[in-house]
Each structure stands twice: as structure tokens, then as C-alpha cells.
Amino acid sequence: MKKLLVYGGIVVVLFAALAIVTSMKSQQASEGNPFGKERLDPSTIKQLDDPLYQNIILPDELQASLENGEDKTIYFYSPTCPACQQTSPVLVPTAEEIGVNLELLNVLEFEEAWADFGINVTPTVIHFENGEEESRLESSQTKEEYEQWLSERADSAS
Question: pTM of the predicted model, to two decimals?
Fold first, then answer.
């Protein structure tokens, strides 16, 4: 009986140590992140060094820009969304090629964006002119569709 208690105690201590190490590792990975949050979802942490996910905008920054009447093109995505994982390698470089400053808003980390911006599905790209929504694309599109849509937005900004 004593052996069972000893082994049970060892198992409990090991699980506790594992939980602490995992929590510390996650917290270290989250430090200094562009999201300004202490804790990030593990799928967001995986994207922190990915060049496709560097031009991040926070909801407060976006709201302030829109209140100032600025033009913005925003890609609303979730790191857990399979369609977003397929879209980002197409959309982000296409926007760069065309010269559109595509900023990314992570709806997994900022769930209020779903309601605040009427997001129904990810991926969604919205172009704002003078602080107001001008156009949006929902769901995955082809490279050609993104090129055409982004080119029209770039032309109107010129």
C-alpha cells in the first residue's frame, strides 16, 4: 500500500512539474509579442516568427485609424483556420507585389473583432476608405481574384 502511495505521489509531482514547465514555456514565447498580451494561443505563438504574419494591427489601432478617416486594407484571419493557412501564402505576397499595405488582425486573439467588424467567416479582407468599409472579400479566393481586388483598391488609393 505504501508503494502505491509513493508511486502515486511521484506521478502527481511529475504532472505538476510538466504543467509548470509548459506554462512557463508558453509565457516566455509570448513575451514581447506584437499582440500586447501576456498569454497567446499556441497556434498564434507558432506564427510569431513567420514572415507572412508580421504586419499585425491591433483592434484599438484599427479603430483609431478608422476614426481618423484613414484608408486601410485589413486581413482578418485565425491561425487555427485551415482556409487562412492556405490563403496567407497567396494573399500576403500578392498584396506586397501590388503595393497594398495589407495589415493582419488575428480574430483568435481578439474575438471582439468578429462582432465589431461583422466578420462572418475567415479569411476576410476588408478595404476601408475614409474610415468606412468600401469593399470586402470573404472566404478563400484564387490568386487572380486577389490580384484583381487588390489592384482595384490600390488604383483607388492613388
Answer: 0.80
For residue 89, give the amino acid letter: P
- Beta strand 102-106 with 124-129 is unpaired
pLDDT (tens, 9 = 90+) of the chain, 158 residues, equals: 777 777 677 777 676 656 565 555 544 455 678 888 889 999 999 999 999 999 999 999 999 999 999 999 999 999 999 999 999 999 999 999 999 999 999 999 999 999 999 999 999 999 999 999 999 999 999 999 999 999 998 876 54
Task: Quote the cell numbers at residue 39.
Answer: 498569454
